Each structure stands twice: as C-alpha cells, then as structure tokens.
Amino acid sequence: MKTRILGLLAPLAMAVGCLVAVPTAAHATGSICGGYTNIVYANRYNDSKGNPMATIYVYTKGGAVDQYKLTTPTCAILYAEGAYSGESKYMGVTLCSDYVAVPCTTDHGTYKSYAGPVYQAHGGCGSVTYVMKNTAGTTIVSDSSALGCD
Fold this sequence. Notes:
Immunoglobulin-like, signal, 1 helix, Spore-associated protein A, about 5% helix
C-alpha cells in the first residue's frame, strides 16, 4: 500500500510543446519522482458530474530537453482524485520508451492514492498507458497517449 502526502505544484508552465488538458492543480513530485519536475503530459478525468476521478502526469528530469526528446528521462504517475482517493482500487500505469530493445516499465495493483512512479531512461518519445477501476471493479479510466516528438 502506498501512503504519501502529496503537495501542490506552483502554477503550471507549458512544457516543450506537448502538454495536454492541464488540471487546475498538479501534485508535487519532489520525493515521488526524485527530481523529475518538467510536466510534458497531464490529463485529468472527471465523472459525469464534473468531479475529478484521476489525473495522469508524465514528467521529464532536468532543465534541458534534447531537440527530439529521444534521450530524455521520464517518470509517470497516475493519481486517484477526489472521492476516489483513499479507497483501495485497482490502478496501473505503463511507461514505454521509443527504443524497441528497452522493455516498458509498469506498476499495477491495488492502491489507495496512486500508481507509479514508473521510469524510462529514454522515454521522451515513448508512450504512457493507464487504467483505474472503482471499488466495484468497473473500469472508470483507461487511456494511452504517445508522448510526442518534434
């Protein structure tokens, strides 16, 4: 079981051209992703009433990102939000590199707050796939995204 206190990140800045659906507040990753601070992908999922269910974040490490993001280290975390946070449920996140010889990294299981972090040393042009079920076992979030390259 994962139990960590999650803080709030200062207002978000656009990150190197691939930020999607910016949530109103992002979780800090200082201790969770260990220095991965540049958000390159974020997407919040709400229920039919507009209440937050989950947010996926993908971060890169360091200040400089190479032109094509091929060698940029990445970290991904799927957070349960709102009423879904704090209750045990199945969650999973998979982060893949664009290097075919490098296996994807995954974290899937029953968690209360978040799945991950998962890392790729060369993940800047890879992809992220994630899933979250409610306590009844019904899938409520299931999606994937290419992280994109210029």
